[in-house]
Amino acid sequence: MTRWLTFCLLAAPLAVVGCAPQELDTTYGLRHSLSGRESVNGTAALGEMFKAAGYRVNGWRRLSPKLEDYDVIVWFPNDFAPPEEPQRQFLEDWLSNEPGRTLIYVGRDYDAATTYWQKVTPSVPADQAMEVARRLATLRSANAKARAATKWDNHVDWFTVQQPQPQGPVTDLAGPWAASIDARQAELDVYTLLAIPGEDDRKKWKGRDGVPLRDLEYTPLLAGNQGPLVTRITSADWGSSQLLVVANGSFLLNLPLANATHRQLAGNLIETCGDADRAVFLESGPGGPLILAEDPDESYPTGLEVFTVWPLGIIVLHLAALGILCCFAAYPIFGRPREVLMPSQASTARASTYQSGYYMAGSSTVEASARRIERAHFGKHIEAVGEMLELTHDRNYAVERVKYYHEHVKRDSGVSHQQSE
């Protein structure tokens, strides 16, 4: 199991048990950014599942030729309205350009923040229950307004938009993916259904805007009591490529993937993509992604361009070298850091250390600090040598050391060490 998915599994139960009202990140449909990782509506956990399955995963925000480098497109549009015809045509051309490609379209009409506050409600303190109820009601109202303001009457032969009854939790599951799924453990919600177009819809669309009807084949992979939740669409024009239409992200976003049953459904989705290698998460806001004939220049200034400007470049180079030398001179610490004491403090500390019986000449941090401060006083050296000799409690040894000093070290100007006394 990947690191991010493990984090989601551990953090989600903590997030919904015994927590107080707090600022909740609800940014929708992002994967790689900080919001994509922390938001309950992010897609980072699903991206990590793709990586665990062997995919190389990237993100993109435009419909451009760069998408030709990928085998799978995962699109979480942050827009309740269906994609417009130019966007659908671009993606269908992408499907037909290479065999074995998969486009995953996930409907917008689900907000994991609503699920979050529903789970929090039973465990919050009594004095915070009103605030949690207010936030939950605000979210539901905002989603209802966005749903009501959306123009659903578009020619979209990928699906037809319906308002199922009853709305909300899915109680029963059917289809190939439901064989090993316990519907009681799943927590799927449906408010707007992306249903398979019927004959009436196709007759109504026939000839609209000069767009001819095409022979598309619809295969429900997962269905609930309200209707299809995941539909596989194929066409002779696309070859072996496929379009997977998912009703919403109620089992694919960060917070829902804390549920083991949802991870099993997400695994089925990844497995349906076949033996692909590279996947891209297409991120878009209201109106959908822009369509570009050429990829934009994604290079950003790094600051190193200053070295290419004369004479500023050579000046900055010398300043950088000087700064590095200053860092080497000022910051390294050689040896064990020691506290520097003033001479009076060192004497007091040395006296207390003598009294404790633990003083070791030549190795005491206090004594070393004192000697470092008073290193210009040669008499301190004589005293230190005398103290060390005293600690040996061996008079003969001390006499031998002094004699050795006079014979081999001390000399007058011009006198050789080899000259006998």
What key attributes describe this structure?
alpha/beta; 14 strands; 421 residues; two-stranded parallel ribbon
In short:
This protein is of the alpha/beta class. The chain has helices at residues 3-15, 34-38, 44-52, 85-97, 112-120, 126-148, 199-205, 260-272, 312-330, 343-356, 365-373, 378-392, 395-409, and strands at 56-60, 62-63, 72-77, 102-106, 160-162, 168-169, 173-174, 189-190, 193-195, 216-224, 228-235, 242-246, 278-284, 290-291. The protein has a domain at 3-291.
Question: What is the gyration radius calculated from CA atoms?
Answer: 38 Å
Basic shape: elongated
Largest sheet: 8 strands, mixed
What is the helical fraction, as a range of percent? 25-40%
Which structural class should the secondary elements be placed in?
Answer: alpha/beta
In spatial order, strands of the major sheet run: 1-13-3-4-12-11-10-7
As a percent range, the share of strand residues is: 5-15%
How many E-type strands? 14
Q: Averaged pLDDT, please?
A: 80
The helix count comes to 13
Order of helices and strands: HHHEEEHEHHEEEEEHEEEHEEHHHHH
Q: Kindly, what is the distance between the CA atoms of the first and last residues, rounded to a whole number of angstroms?
A: 85 Å
Low-confidence stretches: 1-21, 349-366
